[in-house]
Design goal:
Elements: H1 15-28, H2 59-66, H3 68-72, H4 76-87, H5 93-108, H6 118-134, H7 154-160, H8 165-178, E1 183-188, E2 191-198, E3 201-205, H9 227-231, H10 240-244, E4 247-249, H11 251-257, H12 271-284, H13 289-308, H14 312-329, H15 338-356, H16 360-373, H17 381-400, H18 404-409, H19 415-419, H20 422-441, H21 445-458, H22 463-485, H23 489-502, H24 507-521
Antiparallel strand pairs: 1-2, 1-4, 2-3
Length: about 525
């Protein structure tokens, strides 16, 4: 029997893996900050808490978190733990207990009335705080020497004696709660102070000034005469309208608020500590969109770092810890349009990790769900491509195991989107090419032609479709040659006719058909 096997083009088989890798790289490399900060630290203890967060919690952090309900209720020791937690620095249990005992000893030394004269006690506490911790007294200049605009950590008030409006306010609030004084935090765009609620009146306390106890915050306070007071503290002078629009928050809420402040700037605090505070803030402020956005940004960056090191097992641990949180967040409706895109990006990373760590079905299901339920504006095209790379990787893996129907099913109901996406179209082409070539190798021309035709019904105009058209023509040529060799020249001619009718350009089929016509006319058939 003559060997008339025509060569087949394999280019389409080589494209999907490359395109998918490029898409994943483009997606991951979109976060330029990943190369500017130090993410190289041990993560073996991460995911160790009962909270849906990734950061590791040490003994002190675990205690502070366990006392959050008490902090909400205004318990002084729980607030101290919360404020130290918000400082973001490594703190031991011993550090916490030492500071708690120090504050107790300080207050025990004060000549207090024992709730008989709360205003007097609150003032004595204020004066003593300045002389003991803030380095100011009655003879000092009203601008404290140890004031630092950026020093928003309570921990550094104790260790360095440096403070700003919010760190000094937190110290005063802890001490005031030790005396059962009702206090709140007052937050303006560039400033914070304390509000003390006393019987019949409210006392406002500017903790950065030795003369700041019971200073009326009226229009005169915010007039030009007081602008030097703010500028001396490197604060943008607020207006009286800012004051009228002030946020009055509980001592607990002030602690959560301080988890994102001057001390958490990238240039000041290590990435690891910033991430822990961003996670905790997001957990305790579940409806705060900016908190969720910041939290998701850290998870996005964690994947980028772990992917670069091919540490997918660690990434999988992270997603096991965060899975419920991400799923719950998917049900929310956000005003910030960037959050759904960022959330989908993080979930795409999760799907990618699942596929790469052996849970292919779960990864595929998640990727398909996201592709079918999320919108992908122009700003999210790399996210869409990453999801399609997950689908394509799964499908190509199935095709390599000769499960061609299973591979094809991965694209089911996604074909329209798929054909418009370079990554997905390449993956789809790779599956169909492998499937058709499987039958070509077995000389099963009919089934290989069916596979090529099926692909061309989906895609008849792309560059890839040209390869399929060429290969389908080769199938018909080999099939017709086979039939001719077996003496079925009429069947061979019918196949070649079908080839010319199906394909826009089929010059080789036309030539072969003409050759058969000539042989028939000459009586050779």
């Amino acid at each position: 029997m003559r060997n008339l096997l025509r060569p087949f083009l394999l280019t389409a088989l080589l494209m999907s893996g490359t395109a998918a890798a490029e898409a994943a790289s483009e997606f991951a490399d979109g976060d330029s900050a990943a190369g500017e900060i130090n993410l190289d630290f041990e993560r073996s203890g991460f995911g160790n808490s009962g909270l849906p967060i990734w950061s590791e919690l040490g003994a002190f952090e675990t205690l502070a978190v366990s006392r959050i309900p008490a902090a909400r209720a205004g318990d002084a020791d729980a607030l101290l733990a919360l404020y130290l937690l918000a400082s973001g620095e490594p703190i031991t249990l011993g550090d916490y207990y030492d500071l708690r005992n120090e504050i107790d000893s300080w207050i025990a030394e004060l000549p207090l009335s024992g709730s008989l004269q709360p205003a007097t006690d609150a003032h004595r506490l204020f004066v003593s705080m300045h002389s003991r911790y803030l380095g100011t007294d009655l003879v000092s200049n009203d601008m404290p020497a140890m004031y630092r605009e950026e020093q928003s950590q309570l921990s550094k008030v104790f260790s360095h004696g440096e403070f700003n409006c919010i760190s000094s306010a937190m110290l005063y609030m802890v001490a005031a709660r030790k005396l059962d004084l009702p206090v709140d935090g007052v937050v303006l765009p560039s400033h914070a102070f304390v509000q003390l609620r006393l019987p019949g009146r409210t006392v406002e306390v500017e903790t950065t000034s030795f003369t700041g106890f019971d200073v009326p915050h009226d229009e005169a306070f915010y007039s030009a005469d007081y602008s030097d007071w703010f500028s001396a503290r490197s604060l943008a002078p607020p207006t009286y309208e800012d004051y009228l629009d002030r946020d009055i928050v509980s001592p607990y809420e002030l602690g959560i608020f301080n988890m994102i402040n001057q001390h958490t700037a990238e240039a000041v605090m290590p990435y690891r500590d910033r991430m822990r505070l961003a996670e905790l803030r997001g957990y305790y402020r579940p409806r705060d969109e900016s908190a969720q956005k910041s939290r998701l940004a850290y998870y996005y960056q964690e994947y980028v770092h772990l992917r670069e090191r091919k540490d997918y097992p660690t990434a999988l641990r992270m997603y096991r810890q965060l899975g419920n949180y991400l799923e719950e967040l998917s049900e929310w409706r956000f005003e910030d349009e960037e959050i759904p895109v960022l959330l989908t990006a993080v979930q795409a990373q999760m799907a990618d990790t699942l596929v790469k760590t052996g849970d292919e079905e779960a990864g595929l299901a998640l990727a398909r769900h996201l592709l079918q339920t999320r919108e992908f504006p122009d700003t999210a095209r790399t996210v869409e491509s990453h999801l399609f790379s997950v689908v394509s990787r799964y499908a190509v893996d199935r095709a390599e195991q000769a499960d061609y129907p299973g591979a094809r099913l991965a694209f089911n109901a996604l074909e329209f989107q798929c054909l418009k996406n370079r990554v997905c179209n390449s993956g789809l082409a790779q599956v169909y090419s492998a499937w058709a070539m499987h039958y070509v190798e077995d000389r099963d021309w009919e089934r290989s032609a069916d596979v090529y035709r099926e692909y061309l019904l989906l895609d008849s105009s792309s560059n890839l479709s040209q390869h399929f058209s060429t290969n389908l023509e080769r199938v018909y040529l080999n099939w017709a040659a086979h039939e001719e060799w077996n003496g079925e020249w009429e069947t061979a001619m019918a196949l070649l006719n079908q080839c010319t009718q199906l394909l826009t350009t089929a010059s080789e089929c036309e030539s072969a058909l003409a050759e058969l016509d000539a042989k028939r006319d000459q009586g050779f058939l």
